Amino acid sequence: MMPDRREEELRRREEEEKRAREEEAAATVASLRFNPTGLQGLSDALNRSLSPTSIHASRLAAADIAFFVANAHHERSALPAGDFHPMFHEARELTGTGLVGRQVRAKFRDNIMNLAFDALTALDRVDGGCTVAVRVSGSQSPGTRTPGTVPLPQDLPFHVYAFPPILAEIPTAKAGLARMVQMFAEEIGVYAVQRFENMAKERLKWNFNKMNDEPAASRPPTQHFHRARAPLIPNSQGTTHFVFHGRPRGELDAMLADVREAPSSQQRQAELEEEIEVLRRQAEDYEVMIDGLDVDLANEKDKVTALTAQLAERVREQDTLVKAQSEALGRVQAEKATVLEAHEKVLKVVMKQKETIRQLKLQLTTNAAVQTSPGLSQSEPPPPPPTPARPSTPSGVRSVLYGAASAHTLRSKYARGFGIKVQQVVEKHQLDYLTHNVCEAVASSYAAIIWIPELQGRLAVSEAIAMDLKEAMEADLCIYD
Fold first, then answer.
1. Is 335 helix (H, G, I), strand (E, B) or coil?
2. Taking residues 56-66, what's their average pLDDT?
3. Measured distance CA(43)–CA(61) in Å, rounded
4. Exposed (0-12), middle (13-18) or buried (19+): which is 309, by Cβ within 10 Å?
5. pTM of the model
6. Are 215 and 103 in contact (CB under 8 A)?
7. CA 395, CA 69: separation in Å to the nearest integer?
8. What is the distance between the alpha carbons of residues 203 and 197, in angstroms, rounded to a whole number?
């Protein structure tokens, strides 16, 4: 039991010590700054089992730099125009002054650049791609130019990453890389160095008439680089790190023109292969275009077919409608002819009735004159026998029908009867039976369009009753047969 307790106590102490070391290391790392002193502090805090002096020293140093720069390209910081990034000042802390300080800072920058080139080399090796990186340091020695003057492309060195197999296997790669570097030098590099020097003068009060930040070992030699033309691509000693020197403007174009005047068979073959590829792609594009046009044409044909079918259907509908309207017009015309024919018949009947009424009125007038004259003829038939007493007829009705005096005692109470329909209306509204005589007088004296007001005035009845009597009179007369 005792050994187990001792082992458990030892494990507990070891875990506590480990936790304490981790907490101390985490606190130390959080306070470190990205500069040579911070890198040493990180190495001490990590307490590696590998000695910094081992064969892995350079890799461990690169790993320390990677610890600080990881995710730097994702960071977004608002930097005012014309000012240095905070990392610029941080990297210079505790690095010393004079030549020793400049050498420390130069080595620090070179190690960061080497790590970047190592990462790009590994990237191209991993995916078989091609990367080109060109950089120029802001802190340049005046070199061959007069102190305080504007830098020229031929005054500056440029550190370039390129993948050697690409340069060796692709005929146009070397000329392309040389153009890229020279364009960078002319369009970007000289202005980047000038920007740095202006900010250093304004912010840091540097005097560029003296050496400020460039170690003697990394200064460009004082002789002019371009008294003799440098090779198109410098010798990288088999690495991916090339050090180019800018050329005077126009020099590279002249060099490349000389090369283009006598192209090699390999270059010509490459150009022909490129032209063939361009033509092949154009042919593919035309095929795709033709296929698309065929599809569009087929779609348009379908649309035309559908529209034609719709138009035919509309035409059939219009034909059906015109046919129906023609048939309806024929029926209307036939009905019109029938109505006109009936109207002619009615006119004939009305004229006949009017003639009959005229004859009856004439005969009635003659009879009345004979009855009222003295000395009635013995040959005249005797008056009819007396009839039972009936309700008296209004004097107005009697005067209308027979005048002011009647020659016969029954004349004022006699009704021959207009017709069955009129009798039905008389019975319906309980009118006087002499209404027949009034209807006969109105029908023989007036047009049908004024029968209703005449009946109202003579019989003292409502318009509805007068309308019923008019319709009954027309029915009895068979005006619309």
1. helix
2. 73
3. 8
4. exposed
5. 0.49
6. yes
7. 136
8. 10
What are the DSSP calls for 23-42, one per residue?
A: HHHHHHHHT--SSHHHHHHH
The answer to whether residue 237 scores a pLDDT higher than 70 is yes
Q: Are the beta carbons of 361 and 444 closer than 8 angstroms?
A: yes
- Retrieve residue 39's tokens: 């890198």
pLDDT value of residue 233:
92
> Rounded to whole angstroms, how far apart are CA atoms 409 and 355?
30
Return the structure tokens found at 288: 């795709």
Residue type at 433 in one-letter notation = Y
Tokens 């005249």: give the residue.
Answer: 380
Query: Would the CA dihedral through 392, 396, 400, 402 be positive or negative?
Result: positive
Q: Which residues contact 357 (CB under 8 A, 6 or more apart)?
A: 443, 444, 445
**What is the 8-class DSSP label of residue 201?**
I
Is residue 243 classed as helix, strand or coil in its secondary structure? strand
The structure tokens listed for 221 are 């030699």
User: Whose CA is closest to 248, among 222, 228, 266?
Assistant: 228
- Looking at residue 393, its pLDDT comes to 41
Task: Compute the distance between CA of residue 1 and CA of residue 177 in angstroms, rounded to an integer.
Answer: 75
**Spatial separation of the C-alpha atoms in residues 28 and 45, rounded to whole Å:** 7
The radius of gyration computed from the CA coordinates of the chain, to the nearest angstrom, equals 65
Tokens of 368: 């009345």
Asked if 335 contacts 468 with a C-beta cutoff of 8 angstroms, the reply is no
Rounded to an integer, what distance in angstroms lies between the CA atom of residue 367 and that of residue 407? 10
How many helices (H) and strands (E) the chain has is answered by 15, 3
